[in-house]
Amino acid sequence: MTRFWLIKFLRTVLTLWLVVTFTFIVLRTSGDPVVALLGGDAMPDEIEQFRQQWGLDQPLFVQYLQYVAQMATGQFGDSLRDHRPVIDIIFERVPATLSLGLAAYLMAALIGIPAGILAALRRGSFIDRAIMAFAVFGFALPNFFLGILMILFFSLILQVLPSSGTGTIWHFIMPAITLGTFTAGTLARFTRSAMLEVLEKPYMRAAAAKGVPAIKRILFHALPNAAIPIVTIIGLNLGQLIAGAIVVETVFAWPGVGRLLVTAVSQRDLALVQGLVLVIATTMVLANLIVDLTYGLLDPRIRKGA
Question: Does 11 fall in a domain?
Answer without folding.
Answer: no
